[in-house]
Input
Amino acid sequence: MGREHRGGRPGRRHLAPLTLLRVPEPYDFELSLARFRVFGTDLANLVADGVLHRVVEGREVRIRARPGGVDVEPLDERTRPVVEHLLGLPFDLAGFAAWAAADPVLGPIAEGLRGYRPPLQPEPFEALVTSITAQQVSLYSAVAIRNRLVERLGERVGEAWAFPSRGRIAAASENDLVAAGFTRRKAEYTVALARSALDLDELAGLPDDEVRLRLTALRGLGPWTAEWFLARHLARPHAWPAGDLALRKAAESIYRVAVDELGARLHPYENLSAHYLLAGWLTKP
Output
């Protein structure tokens, strides 16, 4: 039920718009958003005092935990689909939990991370640039570089920053990105991506293999970047970033098998399995 606002003509009550976005239980808001904090503050997905701040179409959106889901302000036809995607609602967590329970290795990990719903990257261009910044560096370094890019070419709205648009990056020079901490090569990749003819929104309607083909046709976007795009932007269930160093270590440490072999074993939930293995490996004692 909406909140009442007193005022106006006597005897008339005004109801504020509903702000509750329901999230299937179990859902642990703090655990699910750990990725936005554990490697450093993410200015484009800013978590502060229990609130997630994100800029959507020039407006600051504030998201906080609430019984039954999350409280989103403002929540409307523009912000709802972005927040739903950001919070990982496209994932079939109920099906994954039931399937994982039968795995003697993954089952206890999934149970220990009960309520963990991996967040997704709402914007395709931002997702790819995020991957470029993380190529062959620590995630701490990647977050720091990305934050400098956001401060240099993005726009602050309230507490959060809007990630630089594709048009903004296309109009920038490679030197602008180098000044933000990019290597010369990564600056070339990012500006070239922004100026390319590739329709990033169209990728959502294509099969996995076609997405991989179109992305890897661009210089600087290899299989690792394409797979994480499928995993963290498109939420494709069979995405399996076998080239990820941390996932390789998790596979060898937890399952005692090679990562390529493990991917087939975790079908049909490769993507969620990868997220849970990484989260379990990073939080293990």
Summary: The first strand starts at residue 4 and ends at 5. The beta strands are 4-5, 14-15, 20-22, 46-48, 51-56, 59-66, 69-73, 155-157, 160-162. The mean pLDDT is 93.
